[in-house]
Amino acid sequence: MTPHEAVLQDDALALSEFGKGHPALSSTDPSGFTPLQRASEQLDEALRIHRDEELPVYERLGDVRGKAVTMGKIADILQARGQLDEALRIRREEVPIYEMLGDRRTLLMGQANLAITLIRTGKHEHIPEAIALLTTALKSAADLNLPGQAEWIRGLFRQLGLRAPR
Q: pTM for the full model?
């Protein structure tokens, strides 16, 4: 088993065990919903707001950065819902916008988020691209003197069972 497969297997096991037997997560509210069902409803509503209300406003205003940030929020929600192909498509559109804007800090975060999405697809052919994105993002974090972001990215390398480049 590769380090990547081990990470994916650990994530799948953790998700499958999440909330089993935990009273706060398995109990229902007066209307019969569990906290996880409520959270799912909240994600659906957040997705609707970002996609149907917020994004069109930024598009009408021509606010490219606002549009990209909102696209990232939509991708986050889709990823949380397991809709990885759609999240990946959106992240691939989002990152070039930050490149065009020259916003290096947001670009490095976008690159790292794209790498995470690539890894979560579980497709081995995405691993080299994810590593390249993380390497670029880590270099940018170091160049911009952003130790918190750099440590977060190093942690992503560790989760992959890899040593982060210096």
A: 0.75
